[in-house]
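[Discussion] Sanity-checking designs against the backbone

I'm trying to build intuition for which residues belong where. Below is a structure token string of 507 positions. I'd appreciate it if someone posts a full sequence so I can compare it with mine line by line.
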């Protein structure tokens, strides 16, 4: 059942009430403590409920009602929402009243973020979660802000653009983030309820120029192009078997990883020249073919040639994959329903020869001119901080484009600087002066660590924005007593990689 169409006046009053109460991330953490905050992030509300028991301040009442999904006394709620009023909350479809109590119909939670423009915070409304419902989610559930949503939001490129498109908007978190850099955003979804949440959340946070359209994939924007497209699509591989729920927020109705393949194959038509698309996705390893190789084939089959950078972050076996998504929807292990669903997933994977499933990030770009020059398919499985990743990706693309225009002679004539977040570690065997391992590590970006030989380490250490790469290579060759031409041929491809990945930058 869709929410009522959000009334702008009432929503602004609700925002005023939330702001006046101090309903913010840090204040909530103060109220229920770090341990309860961590438990809540894992779907366990009991510790927070215990800490808020008897809390009657406006922020405490709002936290119980919209943060945890618990009912509160009508007089407490009326006091906490003096501007919107209980009638206003009811009109928005956010609560209902019953026998002197106010029962939440949705969650509204603060979500802090940091990007190139600085720190900010949104209030994000979504459907009641598993902890609030006390059982499995309904199939039309509109998801709030989870780990995947935060990851994609952090990955979004930060340079200003014109129009952006959010495919599969859900509660609208990606649209809010995209609007930070885009002049206008079109948000699409197959769920009218999700689009109502998107419109509600845009109004709640004073974000304009977000237009919503109902429909599947690119159908609502047929014939249109955008400078930026983002999507956390419903990519979850779901058995097409009776009795397996089809959750709108995660199941796109395709077989296997077909939705991601379809997205990659069709997105190019909707990108302006130079436009980019970013999405989360997964890809099957099957019939002896790597998931990354299958994803590469999707890119190469696109009717519109595309630059591509895919980063695989995790690989799960069929059992682990099935367990992840069965539990995600609130079905508990050890129950007959859980076992039936697990069997359906395993049967589906076995029938289609799936041995593993990879998860990761996809960045695609329609070249502004000429043929694609970027085809990077890699695995980054170590922990990575989401902070600043969007800006890092933008710098990497810019570095790639500059490098693509430089032959080795021009690169050797370039002056480079080591990035300020790069550190070096040397590991020695006891009693041995020469290092056994030299490691270069970056503090930002993807937090990469590479092993360097003495020549490369010397070059990186000498890149201070003064001398060209060629001059430094010649000096290092003389110091190490090696052939300068051979060293240049060996080291320049590695310099290109260090510039792309952010260890080095152009002075």
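Best answer:
Here's mine. Compare freely.
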């Amino acid at each position: 059942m869709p929410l009522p169409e959000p009334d702008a006046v009432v929503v602004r009053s609700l925002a005023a009430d939330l702001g006046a109460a101090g309903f913010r991330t840090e204040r909530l953490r103060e109220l229920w403590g770090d341990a309860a905050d961590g438990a809540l992030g894992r779907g366990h509300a009991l510790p927070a409920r215990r800490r808020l028991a008897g809390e009657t301040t406006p922020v405490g009442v709002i936290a119980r009602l919209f943060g945890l999904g618990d009912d509160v006394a009508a007089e407490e709620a009326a006091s906490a929402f003096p501007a919107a009023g209980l009638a206003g909350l009811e009109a928005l479809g956010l609560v209902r009243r019953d026998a002197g109590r106010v029962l939440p119909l949705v969650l509204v939670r603060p979500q802090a973020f940091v990007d190139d423009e600085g720190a900010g915070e949104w209030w994000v409304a979504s459907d009641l979660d598993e902890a609030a419902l006390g059982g499995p989610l309904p199939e039309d559930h509109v998801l709030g802000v989870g780990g995947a949503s935060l990851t994609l939001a952090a990955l979004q490129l930060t340079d200003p653009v014109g129009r952006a498109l959010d495919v599969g908007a859900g509660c609208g978190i990606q649209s809010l983030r995209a609007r930070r850099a885009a002049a206008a955003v079109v948000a699409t979804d197959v769920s009218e309820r999700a689009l109502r949440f998107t419109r509600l959340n845009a109004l709640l946070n004073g974000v304009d120029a977000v237009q919503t359209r109902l429909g599947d994939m690119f159908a609502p924007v047929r014939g249109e192009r955008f400078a930026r497209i983002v999507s956390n699509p419903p990519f979850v591989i779901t058995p097409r078997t009776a009795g397996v729920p089809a959750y709108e927020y995660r199941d796109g109705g395709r077989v296997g990883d077909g939705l991601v393949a379809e997205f990659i194959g069709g997105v190019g038509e909707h990108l302006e020249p130079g436009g980019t698309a970013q999405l989360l996705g997964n890809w099957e390893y099957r019939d002896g073919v790597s998931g990354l190789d299958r994803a590469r084939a999707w890119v190469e089959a696109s009717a519109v040639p595309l630059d591509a950078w895919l980063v695989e972050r995790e690989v799960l076996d069929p059992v682990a994959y099935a367990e992840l998504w069965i539990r995600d929807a609130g079905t508990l292990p050890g129950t007959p329903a859980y076992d039936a669903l697990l069997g359906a997933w395993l049967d589906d994977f076995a029938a289609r020869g799936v041995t593993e499933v990879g998860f990761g990030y996809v960045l695609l770009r329609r070249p502004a001119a000429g043929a694609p020059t970027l085809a990077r398919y890699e695995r980054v499985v170590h922990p990575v901080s989401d902070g600043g990743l969007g800006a890092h990706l933008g710098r990497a693309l810019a570095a790639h484009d500059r490098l693509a225009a430089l032959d080795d002679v021009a690169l050797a004539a370039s002056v480079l600087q080591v990035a300020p977040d790069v550190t070096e570690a040397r590991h020695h065997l006891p009693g041995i002066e020469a290092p056994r391992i030299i490691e270069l590590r970056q503090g930002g970006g993807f937090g990469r660590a590479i092993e360097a030989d003495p020549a490369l380490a010397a070059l990186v250490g000498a890149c201070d924005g003064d001398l060209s790469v060629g001059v430094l290579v010649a000096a290092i060759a003389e110091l190490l007593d090696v052939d300068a031409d051979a060293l240049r041929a060996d080291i320049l491809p590695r310099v290109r990689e260090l510039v792309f990945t952010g260890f080095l930058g152009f002075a």
